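Extended Data, panel c. Modelled sequence:
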Amino acid sequence: MSRLNFSRLPAFRVGIALACFALMALAALALGGRAVPPPAAAPARASEEQLQVELITLTPRGFEPSTLTRPKGKFYLTVDNRSGSTEMNLRLDYVTGAQLREMRVSKELLDWSDLLELHPGEYLLTEADHPDWSCRITITPN
């Protein structure tokens, strides 16, 4: 799985994606950190797959929501850092212990988003400096 390379997408799609992420972040702030259901993906051509966005907010109390269940398939995983920390070291691991991805998010960026396609199973999203912060992600077969 590779990181999304925005430079390879048409400018229109990048604008739509960024607008969606900005709206989700504003909605999360307006709701005081409560979980916000992901919006539908931007309209795509009939021949293209529509992608969903799963929003997880990192607060001073940890990840919200702390559990996430979704069907297999490609989706954007977005972590909005509202914890007050200026840097995050996020890890996405299989529950069995094998590391899938590690992301360092700096104070210049704060938030993180990536296009993922996870196989059915259990995953754990954690932040290295706060071992008690975690989000269990379950991918179902359909």
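Residues 6-140 form a domain with the Immunoglobulin-like fold (CATH 2.60.40.420). This feature is highlighted in the accompanying rendering.
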